[in-house]
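Lab meeting minutes (informal)
Scribe: AK
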Amino acid sequence: MQLRMLQSATLQEWVSLLTQGLTLLLFLAGLVLGMWQLRRQKQGAQTEELAKIARARSVLRGLLQGSAFGLVTRAEEHYGAGQGEIKKSEVLANLLQLLPEDQRALFSAEELTSLIESGLASAKKIWGSQAGA
């Protein structure tokens, strides 16, 4: 009888330990799953934010291209020939003033210089066609 009670008690202990172990395992699995879900949501939010920044940057770039053309033309009229670096500096400063301060970091100085040079090339084509007309 005592042996049976001992075996029964041991069996109950094993069942109890097994139940506790499974409970702990399920808890840990839920924790890992929750952390994985949070990470996916964060990555999704970051991807969405980067897409918004890319769209805004694209719109700003288009506006800056059109502005660069006008600013180059104005600088050419103001300074005339032979003042390339002064004109470029003024156009760069004016382009930076057009950008909201928090969005200036979206464009490097090299990229803005490239926009200025592109605007200058477009302006020279137009000026050349007007001179020949």
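Next up, CB showed the second protein from the same session:
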Amino acid sequence: MFEALFDPPVLALLIPVLVIVAIIVRMILRHRERMAIIEQGLDPDLRARERR
């Protein structure tokens, strides 16, 4: 059943799709965190400066 997932043509499509999905999910989660910080009345850029 899962052997078909490891065929080279399938992997050639699956890997880029998974990378794009991961990037989109990360952007959504970052946006939600940023909006939560703004709702609390804090400056979201200040927290980013503290991490560096």
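CB comment: Residues 8-39 form the longest helix (32 residues).
No objections, moving on.
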